[in-house]
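Support case: aspartic acid complex. Customer-provided input:
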Amino acid sequence: MERRKFLEFSSLGLSAITFSSFKSSSPIRKPIVISTWDAGIEANKTAWKILSIGGSALDAVEKGVMVTESSQNCCVGLGANPDRDGFVTLDASIMDHQFNCGSVAFLERIKHPISVARRVMEKTPHVMLVGEGAQQFAVAEGFPLESDKLSNDAKKAYENWLKKSEYNPIINIERTKGNNAFAPPKLETGEWNHDTIGMVAMDANGNLSGSCTTSGMGFKMRGRVGDSPIIGAGLFVDNEVGAATATGQGEDVIRICGSHLVVEFMRQGLNPEMACKKAVERIIKAKGVEKSKQIQVGFIAINKQGDYGGYCIQKGFNFAVCYAEEKNFLVDGKFIL
Ligand code: ASP
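Agent response - structure generated as follows:
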């Protein structure tokens, strides 16, 4: 191993990791798209239509997650969980192969926050717009202002949540009060599943892009913004190295700049799965094992070879993978606790 690589390697304290953790020398697998959770299967289908005919990774990751944003049955987009005051507020980010990025946060009544994020990236000198300003920009760009009515499922869940709600800003109260954001959804009791889709892709030209869109944690405090719209936390792309995205308790992803960290671990030579694992370990180290047992965070990543991987804190996270030889299958994330 050349000296520089060796130094990076030993400074990570990775002596126990085998060489199989490092990037492979097999032919580059491209195009490829992966996305979080099982809703990723449908999203990947649309992304794949674009990638398989030579379209850009950027178009693929935007159009892919729009499928999930449109779904009224899912916990992403306007059909999703409201905040504690009964309003659906959305966060999204997008990043291309040239470090261009855009995001929106605390956006209300706009169906496709991911497309607004792309407009922020392409049409403004800024990276992030929030709240009223983001909505104003979206409307000026021709995005229709949708109704603020909750979807039927979200209304039911919210009414149910209200029955025992305590306006208590303790993080993860969803879990402790029986509204575990990571348990299988039980709409009749107000228990909902995860609330994010993150997608990363490499196109036939070998360029990487990523997207991430969410309604955030269910019944969150009004104004709360998670990791998903924060570049480096919920999403990061470095076209020389790889791309990563996150789902789960955003506060803990922000604390360690999670997706950026995953990409940096890949830069140091780890394959995507090991890079995600190291980032999960960083969260557990920061938070402590006992508190980490109360939350879920999952990362997924791809590198420039088209290797892919994911890791999470605890059982229950999965992600969807699609490339030419293996169309769209679900992988259970390996977990630490
Ligand atoms: N990461 C999202 C957030 O914290 C939530 C999720 O992925 O379920 O807003």
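Residues 26-335 form a domain with the Glutamine Phosphoribosylpyrophosphate, subunit 1, domain 1 fold (CATH 3.60.20.30).

Case will auto-close in a few days if no follow-up is received.
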